[in-house]
Amino acid sequence: MQPLLSVECLSKNYGHGDIFHDVSFTVDAGETIGLFGMSGSGKSTLGKCLIGLERVSSGHVLFEGVDLFTLSERKLRKLRPAMQMLFQHPEMSMDPRMRLCDSVTEPLAYHERRKRSDVFLDLLPLIAAVGLRSDLFSCYPNQLSGGEIQRAMMVKIYSLSPKLIIADEPTSMLDMSVQAQIFGLMKNLQKKNNTACVFISHDPYVMLAMCDCIGILDGVRFRMMSAEEFAEYVAILSV
Question: Which pTM value belongs to this model?
Answer without folding.
Answer: 0.88
